[in-house]
Amino acid sequence: MSSMSRRQLMFAATGIAAVAAAPRLVFAQAAAPAPAAAPTGPFTLPPLAYPTNAFEPHIDAKTMEIHHGKHHAAYVANLNNVAKTNAQLGTAKIEDVLGNLNALDDSIKFTVRNNLGGHANHTMFWEIMAPNGGKPEGDVLAAIDRDLGGMEKFQNDFNAAGGRQFGSGWVFVTVAKDGKLAIETRPNQDSPIMDGKRALMGNDVWEHAYYLNYQNRRADYLKAWWNTVNWAKIAERYAAAKAGTLGV
What we know:
Blueprint: H1 6-31, H2 61-83, H3 88-91, H4 94-98, H5 106-127, H6 138-148, H7 151-164, E1 169-175, E2 181-187, E3 198-204, H8 211-214, H9 218-225, H10 231-243
Antiparallel strand pairs: 1-2, 1-3
Helix pairs in contact: 2-5, 7-9
């Protein structure tokens, strides 16, 4: 048998290497499939009006990315799945559905309570936050002084209520039609809308809102969160509440 020339040997080696590499390439592609698209439907994830690192060091960018892009997005995806067979969910106002949960079929009531409540709570949450959010003034400040004992007492009482909330939940400032304010808590993703009330503002005390940065120090997170509050937006919400037009 004649010996292979140097050129033939080089071509053969190249071919063997290509064949050997092919299974690894196929395996790598199979191990990392493209992520499935989130279900589409009538519910949408509201975009943030600020970058995810806007609140550092008070709230870190990674927490914001996970909180908004994973947790809130999951509520939206779950709602769109339910809406595939319950189209009325996508056409009714969110506050009308949450304010009348007992009208829903038992087969979807639990899912809607948790996910539509979470969607409403988080939509409010992103809205009332902004870097350099200013200070309360005008009617909002007057209401805080009148109903909540002034800013220092209000913040202390709000933080204490958030700290006492057992497990996952929210601490809210609710606003009545006459403009009266109150501090209230809710478990899980329950909303004041479920009790015929409106949330002027609120803070998320689920661990996913703070654990990467604060671990078990919820009290530290509650204090730091005040650096993210958008008082101009809260003033808008207060005016809308008194006018009877505040939704979620």
